[in-house]
Amino acid sequence: MTTASHPQEILRAKINLETSQIAWKELLRFFASGTVIAVSPELDLVEVATHISEDSKEQVEQWLSVNKIGRVSDEQAKTWLESDALLWSVVVKPWILVQQRTN
Q: Which of 90, 103, 102 is CA-nearest to residue 37?
């Protein structure tokens, strides 16, 4: 491992340890404030959180442009609430990233 990659690996490991499952209903107040970001199941939640944490604008903008990440829509919020969804989440201030895993 090179010295340059070492800090990124430490950050990635830290973020990975901070992920957890949470019921959508527990995030409603954060959704109301516009700070919840949905991450497509196709992406790695930890990778996305790492890029956001490092302010990797190019990568984040690319994901935004193809709707792989974005603020949770009212429709999605309603669906998750009605199904009592359990989501994977991680905080990257000021955002809370959530991801619904598909089986």
A: 90
Could you tell me if residue 84 is inside a domain? yes
Which has more confidence, 58 or 7? 58
Tally of domains in the chain: 1
C-alpha dist (Å) from residue 19 to 12, 45, 58, 92: 11, 9, 24, 10
0.85 surpassed by pTM: yes
**Is residue 1 in some structural domain?**
no
As to burial, measured by CB atoms within 10 angstroms (0-12 exposed, 13-18 middle, 19+ buried), residue 89 is buried
Domain that holds residue 29: 6-99
| Segment 78-99, tens digit of pLDDT | 999 999 999 999 999 999 999 9
